[in-house]
Predict the structure.
Amino acid sequence: MREYRVRFSDAGNGWIMATVPEMPAAITQGRDMEEARLMIRDAIKLLLECYADDEAADTDATWETITIE
């Protein structure tokens, strides 16, 4: 399990925009906070699946995990 900080902001016309600063491609919106939360959860899950698929398909690269304190 991993936690992500989500930024919610007014997108105009009553919509709420949701973004994840550490995942620039994770951006969505909802008509209220509940919908915005559901939509950003879906966006994060889909991106993580895509990232895993891309990593599995990338056999020409070397992958390492680096820890930052």
